[in-house]
UniProtKB/TrEMBL annotation:
Protein name per the record: NAD(P)H-dependent oxidoreductase
Keyword Oxidoreductase: yes
Gene Ontology molecular function terms on file: NAD(P)H dehydrogenase (quinone) activity
Domain of life: Bacteria
Family statement drawn from the similarity comment of this UniProt entry: Belongs to the NAD(P)H dehydrogenase (quinone) family.
InterPro entries given in the database record: Flavodoxin_fold (IPR003680), Flavoprotein-like_sf (IPR029039), NAD(P)H_dehydrogenase_qn (IPR051545)
Residue stretches making up the Flavodoxin-like fold domain: 17-199
SUPFAM superfamilies (alphabetical): Flavoproteins
């Protein structure tokens, strides 16, 4: 559980941008954690206020059992996550691509948190038009892959990227500013990974 969730503390306001960084991997030793911490360090160095959500530490059921047809009570950690999303001006998601998509933990988090009335709202019961309730927020995506970037785009069609940018964040009004791929991860050297961490820190400084 994150510090903010544990304490129920309200993030302090400052002169910088309010940033919520979501670690979307269930792995404790994932390189994503190092990337997220580097981004956080860079953003805080520029005076931005950063809060973190490490999904693997939250307590919630990632399965939306009845879709959106029936209400499913939100656990305290998800209520806190919604509060932080409302608080944030800029969202950062750090996650690996598995099987061409985001990890199940991240997908379950999005299913449970981005609810009708919170993230979007259809205009009436029979309408296909909707209001984007998170409009005004921006996002950065920091993504690790083992597949080379060119192959993921041109052969697979980059399904994970389309899912996050268009059919999830875009659907709710969040505009993705940058998607940065760190790939291929598995054969990368320590020297390459250190360069990637420096890149992530620079991204945080430019938040």
């Amino acid at each position: 559980m994150t510090e903010a969730v544990k304490s129920g503390a309200t993030p302090l306001e400052g002169d910088g941008k309010r940033i919520l960084l979501v670690f979307g991997t269930p792995k404790a030793d994932s390189f994503c954690h190092a990337l997220g911490e580097a981004y956080t360090q860079g953003a805080r160095a520029e005076g931005h206020v950063v809060r973190q959500l490490k999904l693997r530490e939250l307590r919630f059921d990632p399965t939306l059992h009845d879709g959106y047809e029936q209400s499913q009570a939100l656990e305290p950690d998800l209520l806190e996550a919604q509060r932080l999303i409302h608080w944030a001006q800029h969202l950062v998601f750090v996650y690996p691509v598995w099987w061409g998509s985001v990890p199940a933990l991240l997908k379950g988090f999005l299913d449970r948190v981005l609810l009708p009335g919170f993230a979007f709202k259809y205009r009436d019961a029979h309408s296909t038009r909707w209001d984007k309730l998170l409009t005004g927020r921006s996002a950065d995506l920091l993504v690790t892959l083992d597949t080379p970037a060119w192959y993921f785009r041109w052969v697979y069609g980059a399904p994970a990227h389309r899912q996050m940018i268009r059919t999830t964040l875009g659907f709710c009004g969040v505009k993705t500013r940058r998607l940065t791929q760190f790939t291929p991860l598995r054969p990368s050297s320590e020297e390459q990974r250190q360069r990637w961490l420096r890149d992530a820190e620079r991204l945080g400084r430019r938040a």
